[in-house]
Amino acid sequence: MLWSYYAYVFELCLFTLTNTLEKVAYLLVFHVCFVMFSWTYWKSIFTPPASPCKKFQLSYSDKQRYEFEERPDAQKQILVEIAKKLPIFSRAHSGAIRFCDRCQVLKPDRCHHCSVCETCVLKMDHHCPWVNNCVGFANYKFFLLFLAYSMVYCVFIAATVFQYFLKFWVGDLPNGPAKFHVLFLMFVALMFFVSLMFLFGYHCWLVSKNRSTLEAFTAPVFVSGPDRNGFNVGIRRNLQQVFGEDRRLWFIPVFTGQGNGHYFPLKNRSSESHNPLLANEDLWEESDDGSEGSLVEDHDPSVTIEMEE
């Protein structure tokens, strides 16, 4: 990233271009692209992954009961009592409610444990080595914008460098340090653009279907069985879940997504009828004093628990 800045600004614009108007225009547009590219990259890296709130964690007393209880059935019953109060609709492949034994939390819908970050991540998409961070509910918008602005950055560089690439290639411009930088800029910009184009296109498709990368490979399981489209509520609402309702903020790397990452509307609303309380997200929010709102209990004796890593 730093090399591309030096090569474009200094070697191309300042040392190679002779037309002042062209030089100013290139530098202005380049810096806009560079700022947005860097901003989204920074947000993708340094936005910590969101983890389940305390409502999904075992309290001290529940943890003590769970750890000191030696009978597996009794342990499951302890977890069942906690699960009855939470907005959980997805299941493990066995049909059991998902529990992370490492984090000691009941997993909200679309939540998974990341072995690299060593924590459960809300709406986990994947762990990305490019940003050395988990991509999930808290930073998925930033990651998408990072891919988009990276493509714009590469396209702009390739488009403006192309004519000078040809001139250096055929020998119309004298050999010098700028030649290597301009030629290499062209190759690198095109190479990254092609790879980013496929990755960005894939994630646009995922957003339109309201799926994560993990859900694209393994369909989420509900009481009625696996369903890849379980969270697909239409393209417009799918986009709003990630980018929010204010379209003016869609292309700015600030968090505007809907919800808190613990609850997601289902395509099949009948699934929520098993627990009428949890069908209304507004009933499950923080209270005015900053503490997490209480939940009215809804008993379901058929619920079971399965521990997952």
From TrEMBL:
Annotated family: Belongs to the DHHC palmitoyltransferase family.
Annotated region (Disordered), positions in chain: 281-309
GO cellular component terms given for this protein: membrane
Residues passing through the membrane, by range: 24-42, 142-166, 178-202
Compositional bias ranges of the Acidic residues kind: 282-291
Catalytic activity: L-cysteinyl-[protein] + hexadecanoyl-CoA = S-hexadecanoyl-L-cysteinyl-[protein] + CoA
Molecular function GO terms recorded: protein-cysteine S-palmitoyltransferase activity
Top-tier EC class: transferase
Alphabetically ordered keywords of this record: Acyltransferase, Membrane, Transferase, Transmembrane, Transmembrane helix
Protein name per the record: Palmitoyltransferase
Domain characteristics, as noted in the entry: The DHHC domain is required for palmitoyltransferase activity.
Major location (coarse): membrane
Cell location: Membrane
PANTHER family (UniProt xref): PALMITOYLTRANSFERASE ZDHHC16
Domain spans labelled Palmitoyltransferase DHHC: 97-217
Its membrane topology: Multi-pass membrane protein
EC number: 2.3.1.225
